[in-house]
Each structure stands twice: as structure tokens, then as C-alpha cells.
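Researcher: Here's my situation. A collaborator sent me these components and asked whether they could plausibly form a single complex. I don't have experimental data yet, so a predicted model of the whole assembly would be a useful starting point for our discussion.
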Amino acid sequence: MIARLLPYPALAAVLFVVWMFLAQSVSPGQILLGTAVAVAASGLMVSLRPKRTKVASWSKALVLGWIVLVDILRSNLTVAWIIASNPKTRISSFIQFDLALRSEAGLTILALIITATPGTAWVQFDRASGSLVIHVFDLVDEDEWIDLVRTRYEALLIEIFEP
Amino acid sequence: MTAASELPSWAALGVAILVVAGTTMTLLGSIGLLRFRTFYERLHPPTLGSSSGTMLVVLASILYFSVVRSRPSIHEILILIFMTLTTPVTFILLARAALYRDRTEGNSDVPSDPLQGPADPSA
């Protein structure tokens, strides 16, 4: 019964919390509305048939979140400095390499990380071969970037989603 | 804006610094968008506005409303979450569209499609 009503309980819970934050009130009316929205919207997800994703290690997810936050802030300063100073020697280019990561959730998060970080953008990924093309704003050493994506993000994502 | 005058000076200073820092990052991103030559280079600067620009303005909003209303105001964090989740989708879509166009037009300087082999067989 509860599985029929709430096929994705975590999603429903998140939607409810978001609703309550947006409403900024804990009146019975808002609780009722929030519950209705959470149940209805998470119920609609059934027709999309998303694959079940299991997070193997929440502590590693937290570590990744922290690393990403620090990296985003650091590359913000780097890119801001490049725009302000506009060095003539800067080379921006595509780089291509293979990923070992295959889980959908892991790849989605890696795409978000790489694109949300200023200075790198996810361009194309081929699911069959695992070949990834990214664009780097300030390319100094190609291998350094490949190593960064593989060891800093991909390795953790594999541990989180593909234990 | 009667509430603004009730703001203690330490909070006003903090809010001002955060807002100016956030808008400066966003402005730098916009300048970069105008300044660089290729489409792919122009992909990068606007992410300043969608990451640290948004982050700093959200922090300013949290500080301002927490002090003015004398209770923690954290629902602004949602803006940051929504921005971080949605803007990369647009950037990836734009990059893919540009790459598709460049490959179709046979422009150099773009990597060949891993699915279809070299873009120019004679090269």
C-alpha cells in the first residue's frame, strides 16, 4: 500500500521539504498542500521509469561535495583572473579521454561537476566506448586535466555508485 | 525600505561586501562572454555568474533577511541548488549544438566524432 502511494519516498520527502522551505510556513494548509505536491509529483516519476540508484557510501559523497565546492570556488578565482588579465599565451582546447564510470547517476553528477566548474565544460560522451570530450578554458598540461578528472572525481563516483 | 535602516552597521557592511563581490564576479563573466573569440571559449565565463556570483548574492540575502527578521533565513539555498542543477544542462546542450554544427560544416579545430571516425577522411 505504502509502496503504491509513495514509489519514491526519498524524492517525495525532498519535494515536501523544498515546498515547506518555499512556503516559509508550517501552517496546516501548507503541510497539506506540500504533501499533495510531494505525493503527486513523485508518483508521476513512475511513468519515467528511472533506474534505481543506490548510494553505497554517503560519507564519500560528502567528501566529494566538499572537494567540488572547493574546486568551484578556486576555479572561479582562476577564471576571473584570466578574464581580467587576458594573457596572450592562454590556449583553450578540447581534450578527449576514456572514462571507466558507467552508472547513469555517476555520469550525470560528473557532467554537472565538470560543467558547473568554471574553466571546464562537458561536451560529448559516448556511452558505448566511454569516450569523453571536454573543453578546457586554460589548457596547460592535457595529462594533468585527465588525471584530475579521473583521480579527483571519477574514482570517488565509482566508489559511491559502483562499489 | 524601512527595514534597511534598522540593519546594524556590521550587517550592512557584510551584505554590501557580499553583493558587490557577487555582482563583480557576474560582471567579469559577462565581460568574458563579450571578449573571447570562439564559441567554446565563451562557454566558460558565464559560469562565474552561475556559481560564485549566485553564491555570494545568496549569502548576502541570507545575512540580510536573517538579521532583519531576527530568525535564520536559509530558503535562499534552494536558488543555489536549482542554479547548480539546471545551468549545466543548458551549457552542455549549447556545446553539443555548436559541435554538431562545426562538424557538419567541416570546420577544423573541433575533435572528430568518436562515433563516426575522423571528420575529414582525406586529412
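Model: Some features of this prediction you could bring to your collaborator: Residues 77-104 of chain B form the longest helix (28 residues). Chain B touches chain A through 34 residues (CB under 8 Å).
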